[in-house]
């Protein structure tokens, strides 16, 4: 273990970055001196590996330093005053944001909810708190074998239900995929081994065909003067394959993307050119051509997908994207919030930035640099923090986790306002959910709506890329029927609160 292992993973660190990380490295080494993990290894290994994960996400020196120090107060011998003096307010805030979560152990729904409530408040202030926590959780999952069995299952379940979906919502697929597979191994060990063996057997049959096809692609691309590209293949995650098998009746023959060829090129134009080359040398399967560049997935994923039949009769999925799209698909929001020394955001200066931003939630304003981390926190994180304020009864606590899954961890759609602003909602959301997502007052006074220029009912289900115009009327007010129409917890909460406040106005006067 050396500090160079960390700094070498950063994006062009200057000497000040290196010195800052070296200082934190030495501080953490001393703070955890003599401490051992369940594995018998020095505790310092955990914070070192957490920092390495953060550096690999290109999170910058400040966040990486916070990763090295994230256990220094709770499990080390450091004090808040000491960290503030040596590393500054920003690092102390990040460390505290992660440290506070460790003070409440997860045992039962009530305490679980309490931890999440504290977590969400910290995350809403700075998204880096969440990314540090995810890196911390990833290394803990990698070493979960040393924990007693009952604790293994509890931690794995929490990871699969909370942390992996959070990573997926932030589009950090590289992280969410590993968290899913590591959790699955402990929650369903028999199924895990079955899927693992299935992947191994499929790979033995499939990969030779892939290598032959990749060589053919390279020759054709060279003929078309496409010279700057990279080809490889990706294997579907174990847990992801398990879920997909359940959806198709456990018939492996109905899944075409267990393995997929990936072709990374320099420009969007090259992406479409490569697609044309591949369709010229193979037979594409109808209905299996998907353009996620023109119409990105709800989490911002961009790529061209096509499934083709080769001359040998093999069915192969090909994914085509730019190098930047590939990096974004693996690191998500982490690739957009590269912090410099004082917390300002490193700007993406590529020509596609303005084009790309129209398809993303307002994660990041590309037009300006800010030193306020709250300005880049996704809206749904703030909604999570807001929703936890309304937990008052045991019933509320029991429903909180379920609401998280329903409103925030399900598949998402992107819809647009007439001005082109993107609104991120769960799949299945209706017009009323959209109205309340815009603003509570807009929702309260909704009188009608148009989708893509056509009048629709308030319970009309929304689809990805719909343009929705809400028609407002001051006299329009929520009714109990709206509670049945709305799908998101946020919309239902606003409707319920309005009806409760105005209960007396809705009562019919008794006749004399």
Structure description:
The protein has 512 residues and is α+β, with helices and mostly antiparallel strands. It folds into three domains: 3-186, Hypothetical protein af1432 (Orthogonal Bundle); 190-329, Beta Polymerase, domain 2 (2-Layer Sandwich); 411-506, Ubiquitin-like (UB roll) (Roll), CATH 3.10.20.30. Helices cover 52% and strands 11% of the residues. It is built from 22 helices and eleven strands. It has helices at residues 3-7, 15-31, 44-56, 60-69, 80-87, 89-99, 109-125, 127-142, 149-169, 173-187, 189-223, 238-247, 268-281, 323-331, 353-357, 379-387, 394-409, 431-438, 440-444, 480-485, 489-501, 503-506; strands at residues 229-235, 259-265, 283-284, 290-291, 304-309, 315-322, 412-416, 422-426, 446-451, 454-456, 468-472. α2 packs parallel to α4 (60-69), α3 crosses α8 (127-142) and α8 (127-142) crosses α10 (173-187). The protein is globular and about 70 Å long. Mean pLDDT is 78; it is low at 104-111, 338-374 and 507-512.
